[in-house]
Write a structure and sequence with these properties.
Elements (H helix, E strand, L loop, with lengths): L2 H15 L4 E5 L4 E3 L12 E8 L6 E7 L2 E3 L10 E3 L10 E3 L8 E9 L2 E12 L6 E6 L7 E6 L8 E7 L5 E2 L5 E3 L6 E4 L8 E9 L2 E9 L4 H49 L13 H7 L3 H23 L25 H23 L1
Parallel strand pairs: 1-9
Antiparallel strand pairs: 2-7, 3-4, 3-8, 4-5, 6-7, 8-9, 10-11, 11-15, 12-13, 12-16, 14-15, 16-17
Helix pairs in contact: 4-5
């Protein structure tokens, strides 16, 4: 085969490979880069080599087959993750890469050589990285009539990353933004809300997306409008007033109980001071006890008569000297003045003296008998 034919076959093979020149895969996925050749008639002299050209100037060898041996640990970052996908000795020298990483992206070249003949296949691999979990935050004053800004950002991910904002309703569904919200055209990850009203209160979701996937975050907006402050202030004043009334009622109840207790303790002392003195019991001469004793049998009549005479003499001597009789205290008058002493009835006194004079005579008569 002439050199021209070889060059034609190589160019034809290269051109056929260009039909799938670009592969896009997500990070952590697996990929198979195809490479089919016609140089497998004499496998003893077959050489296969995969090269990677990334940001560096010189290409690096990924995997190679030469002299009947396979070498697949030539790049440190790809050790254990690259291999031939099929039977390369039969014309399929496809390359398999597992657990893709962003460093695997670049332009791959499959070069097959056999008996001085060459075939090339060029494939561009793009490893797509999903956006990282974005961070949402808010800036500004959350008050009625003010202006705030909502921002969202993903630190990592394959560019370009698209940002979209949506509002979440009470049922958890996403919907349109309120009328006062405007997207920053120079930075779609940011929205402004001017002249805030209570309508802006709610949850807002930011979605960061690219070809590999998407991630979301949520931020809450709570607008404090003016009438809220009056309501809160009124409620606070009402609560404070209610507590003050309760405290006053408790204090008055305690004071009333203390006063009642004090009056109960002082009342017995006042009664003792104003109590009526006990009345003295006077024994009149010639009481019924003497008469009852005189009705006894004849054997005790003499003794009873003598005893009655003796008591009559004692009573006479007591009434004859009224100035030594113990003073009896009567109840005090209501106006605090002592009652006047009782007047002595002189008529009764004369009768008593006459009776007392007769008693000794009778005693002498009994004694004579």
């Amino acid at each position: 085969m002439s050199a021209l034919s070889i060059l034609f076959l190589a160019s034809c093979s290269a051109w056929m490979s260009q039909a799938q020149t670009e592969f896009k895969r997500v990070a952590e996925a697996n990929v198979t880069l195809p490479c089919h050749h016609r140089l497998h008639e004499k496998p003893t002299s077959l050489d296969i080599e995969w090269l990677l050209k990334d940001s560096e100037a010189e290409p690096k060898v990924v995997i190679t087959y030469a002299g009947g041996n396979i070498y697949n640990d030539l790049i440190e970052e790809q050790k254990g993750r690259v291999s031939f996908a099929s039977n390369f000795l039969k014309g399929d020298a496809s390359l398999e890469i597992s657990l893709l990483q962003p460093s695997d992206a670049g332009q791959y070249t499959c070069k097959v050589k056999n008996a001085g003949q060459y075939e090339w296949t060029h494939i561009t691999l793009k490893v797509l990285e999903k956006p990282s979990k974005p961070k949402c935050w808010k800036e500004g004053e959350m008050s009625e009539g003010k202006e705030i800004a909502l921002q969202c950002n993903s630190v990592t991910g394959t560019t370009p990353i698209m940002y979209t904002w949506q509002r979440i309703d009470e049922e958890g569904k996403t919907g349109y933004l309120p009328p006062m919200a405007h997207i920053n055209l120079s930075n779609p990850a940011q929205i402004f809300m001017k002249n805030l009203t209570w309508v802006a209160t709610g949850l807002y979701q930011c979605t960061a997306s690219n070809e590999a996937g998407q991630e979301t975050c949520v931020v809450e907006v709570t607008v404090q409008y003016a009438q809220n402050f009056g309501i809160v202030a009124g409620a606070v004043c009402g609560v404070m007033g209610g507590l003050s009334l309760v405290f006053l009622a408790v204090w008055l109840t305690i004071k009333k109980k203390e006063k009642r207790k004090y009056e109960e303790e002082e009342t017995p002392n006042e009664i003792r001071e104003d109590a009526e003195a006990p009345k003295a019991r006077l024994v009149k001469p010639g009481s019924s006890s003497s008469g009852s004793r005189s009705s006894h049998s004849g054997s005790s009549s003499t003794r009873s008569t003598a005893n009655s005479a003796s008591r009559s003499q004692q009573t006479l001597s007591t009434e004859a000297t009224p100035h030594i009789t113990p003073t009896q205290h009567g109840p005090m008058a209501m106006d605090g003045r002592e009652p006047e002493p009782k007047k002595i009835n002189h008529t009764n006194l004369i009768k008593t003296e006459a009776t007392a004079t007769m008693v000794p005579a009778q005693s002498r008569a009994f004694q004579t008998v």
